[in-house]
Amino acid sequence: MIDTIQFDEALQRIAPYVRHTPLLPMPPLRGEFHPQLTLKLENLQVTGSFKVRGAFNTLLQMSPEARARGVCSASGGNHGVALAYAAWRLGCPATVYIPERATADREARIAAWGATVVRHGAAWDDAHVAAVAFSEQHAIPYIHSFEALPTIIGQGTVGLEMLSDVPDADLFIVAIGGGGLISGVATAIKQRRPQATIIGVEPVGAPSMSHSIAQQTLTPLSAIHSFADTLSPRMVSNTTLTLTRAAVDHIVLVDDAQMLAAMRWLWQEANQLVEPAGAASIAAIQAGKIDLQRYRKPVALICGGNAGAAPVFDTYAQAVIPS
Question: Which residues span the domain enclosing 125?
Answer without folding.
Answer: 52-138
